Amino acid sequence: MALTTAPGRTTRTGSPRPHATRRGAGRDRHGEGLAGYVFLSPWLIGLMGVTAIPMLLSLYLSFTNYDILTPLSEVEWVGLANYERMFTQDPSYWHAVQVTLTFALVAVPLKLAAALGVALLLNKAWRGVGLFRSLFYLPSLLGGSVALAIVWVNMFNRDGAFNSFLAIFGIEGLPWVNDPDWALETLMLLAIWQFGAPMVIFLAGLKQVPSELYEAASVDGANRFRQFWHVTLPMLSPVIFFNLVLETINGFQGFTAAFVLSNGTGGPVDSTLMYTLKLYISGFTDLEMGYASAMAWVFLIAIGLITTVFFSTGRFWVHYSDGER
Amino acid sequence: MTAVTSTGARVGARKPSGRQALRLIVLIAIVAVVLYPLLWMLGTSVKSQEEIVNNIGLLPETFTPGNYTDGWRNFDFSFGKFFLNSAMVSLLTVVGNAVSCLLAAYAFARLRFRLRGVWFAVMIGTLLLPGHVLIVPQYILFRSLGLVGADWPYLPLLIPQFLATEAFFVFLMVQFMRGIPRELDEAAKIDGASPFGIFRHVILPLSRPALVTTAIFSFIWTWNDFFRQLVFLSNLEDYTVPVALTLFIDSTSQSAVGPMFAMSVLSLLPVFLFFLAFQRMLVEGINTSGLKG
């Protein structure tokens, strides 16, 4: 023990003993490495057992005609038949792709715009910020539930609250949720209604923008709009990026409200057939789990590609102030 | 720093109050729109069958609390059974996520080990991995283990949560821990603390806001989760609240609307109370993690 401490002391006083130093550092690293894997072990087991192996299983199944009724040992290898069927013989699959893309492309930008707009309003309010923030946040907590989907569907019924609101202005409303042209729009509104979660994150981001920057900008003669464009947006870009990635991926996975609206069918006329709902119907209603697995893999690759696009374009517009510090 | 803040506040106070008043009016209008569906749900839940069709306003003319008792007794089991099932699944999920994600996050945020960068990248990858992609093979796997439709059918819902598969929480905690000054670790290390000691005495106590945030989100997400519970629960007596609620939709008769709304209100109540009790900590947790990022 005395031997190991002595070289350390001499190292510090200026006569380096490379051998001892290396050994010391190596031992430290080894201890930390072991501890690292101890702490990581639940996650690693989960990664293998709950994520990686099921993923590989589903990749294999996507080339088979597996349904839950036949044992795994008797499944038939069908090659690319599931993928062929998906892309060429199943019009409702393409419908699901279209519905999902439309939903994400419209609902996500509108939701983020609402979130940022309200966050900007709230950031400048001189009192009641906490109360408003809580009230706006509430829908994000409740909105994903079956209960709220039920309420939403009833609100946009022919006899629902929305039409009674329109009646005040003498407009006769439609049975929105039963109309193939409007059912998906009601689901988009439900998504936008939950703008509170990204808003809270925007608000926290806005609080981090140093007020010196605004002072400097106004000294330089920048008006409010230029301050927003040249100070707020760049400083907020990491938060915008975070919200954009998260909300887009969530948007692609909308299931509950579509299930409730259509009672699990994706109707009316497949207008709310979100991708995940199509996957659920194939796997758990039609029991075509091989086909559903193929669908899952295409979904995974699509999400991966979209994420890659986000991250590779992100470096051009996301500004991290940490890097400069 | 304090000087700057107080100057900012003074500048704010000097602003014309007209603009602030306008801002307040706009905010109140948005609140009204945002809260309307919730208030309408509450009102409808105490309307009689006729009023649900004829009176679409917020308030009922005759207060009909009978919807609540009707809904509660609508099935062979009292609705309370579904609440117990949901509560059990949600609370166990909270425990699982808090423990397993904290351990993983500490490893990622503070410890140096082989392949850490690779595993971290994999973790970020799973962050974006849609749960729906895994549901089919997980169902097959858990079913082949005899866990689907077992006497206690909740293991397929819980096992992943005890294995830190909810990467969002791992990521949230890593981000939070990165904000804890490394000097504290270094000081503990100089005092002879092992990685376990640093975890126990430095990181764990300081990670409380991140743990609270994780617990709250875990509870609420699981309470509201529908997809996994729909897939894995097949017996009525095992149903959780969201799955049981969909049974109301199946019965298309108009008479079910009142009870359906009443049970919907009750199903949101725990989330609402949870939020009322913990919202300060929740927002604090978010803000602290953002502050140090």
Helix content of chain A: over 70%
The proportion of residues forming helix of chain B, as a percent range, comes to: over 70%
CATH architecture title of the largest domain in chain B = Orthogonal Bundle
Number of strands of chain B: 0
Intertermini distance of chain B: 18 Å
Question: Please, what is the oligomeric state?
Answer: heterodimer
Order of helices and strands of chain B: HHHHHHHHHHHHHHH
The helix-and-strand class of chain B reads mainly alpha
Largest interface: A-B, 97 and 102 residues
Overall mean pLDDT of chain A stands at 85
Radius of gyration of chain A: 27 Å
CATH superfamily of the largest domain in chain A: MetI-like
Instruction: Tell me the CATH topology of the largest domain in chain B.
Output: MetI-like fold
Query: Low-confidence parts of chain A lasting 5 or more residues at pLDDT below 50?
Result: 1-27
Can you tag this structure with a few keywords?
heterodimer; A: 325 residues; mainly alpha; MetI-like fold; 2 domains; B: 293 residues; 15 helices; globular; disordered C terminus; MetI-like (chain B); transmembrane (chain B); transport (chain B)
